[in-house]
Amino acid sequence: MGMQQRKDIFLKKLGWLGFAVGLTAAVLFVPAPARPGRSATVIARRGYWARYPEGSWLGFQQARDAGAQLSADAVLTGDNVWALLHDTNLERLYCRPWAVDAVTYDQIKDLAHCGPLSDRYPQRGISRVRDFLNEFGSAVAEVELKNTPPLPTERRAAALDEVAGLVGTLRGTLTVTSFHPADLRELKQRDENLRTGLVVYYPREISRVRASDWADIDAVSVRAQSVSARLFGGLRARGKTIWVYDTGTPWSRRRVRQLARLAPDGYVVSDPVAFRKDLAFVQRPPVRWWGR
Question: What confidence score (pLDDT) does residue 235 get?
């Protein structure tokens, strides 16, 4: 074989290698175009949880200022005040070995936050859900009820009465969510115009919802690890709003791309600013090398 033939073979192989590398780069790095006609809401979970103390007033302010909607959790105290808390005890974030429903609101309202990032941004005080809604108003997209099932019947009824009253003029923008369909059913009995949502951690929880309860569920918030095209298809067939939520760890850009292809109605995230950037990146139009 002559030198020229070897050179031709080498250049041919090099050309095929370049083609393969280019094709691989296109598949990996050029995002799929955004689905037209769908604009998803970005909702900050427990405030700006990734950058500020979890559930703190400062975190909610920063999330609102960043243009995100807000998602908060509500736990009932021993004297029937809905407090702005996620945990039903105060050990993790306030370093007190107390169950929330065993203390009064006055006992906990001035506690100092001791969770992550509290050394950088010292925070003191636990807010009432009433004050939170009065301050942030239509910026609040979700309030999740945390400890209603264990309550005695009369106390539970009074607590749900309080929730229906708190929503007030925010019925058009605020969704009250819970892991328990019974909460949503009883809230709808109090106010049929109140928006309700079911929180789902595992897909099998969907199959446990009674057929009669679906009429009282307006939205479903699904943990990102549990989403699938089949799950989304079933919920869309029922006409439900679909949110996807993270559990405190921001998603990778690859995961954001996978979720964007499913086109949920909202994303409940711990870092709304970083998520918006990632979502914009994966939804940008593909690069066109052959001109405009």
Answer: 96
Token pair 């370049």: residue: 18
Q: Whose CA is closest to 43, among 197, 215, 233?
A: 197
The confidence score (pLDDT) of residue 36 equals: 42
Q: Do β-strands 69-76 and 266-269 pair in parallel, antiparallel, or remain unpaired?
A: unpaired
Q: Which CATH class is domain 41-283?
A: alpha beta
Pick out the chain residues at pLDDT < 70.
Answer: 1-38, 286-292
Q: What is the pLDDT of residue 284?
A: 85
Domain ranges of the chain: 41-283
HEC letters along the chain: CCHHHHHHHHHHHHHHHHHHHHHHHHHHHCCCCCCCCCCCEEEEECCCCCCCCCCCHHHHHHHHHCCCEEEEEEEECCCCCEEECCCCECHHHHCCCCEHHHCCHHHHCCCECCCCCCCCCCCECCCEHHHHHHHHHHHEEEEEECCCCCCCHHHHHHHHHHHHHHHHHHCCCCEEEECCHHHHHHHHHHCCCCEEEEEECCCHHHHCCCHHHHHHCCEEEEEHHHCCHHHHHHHHHCCCEEEEECCCCCCCHHHHHHHHHHCCCEEEECCHHHHHHHHHHHHCCCCCCCCC
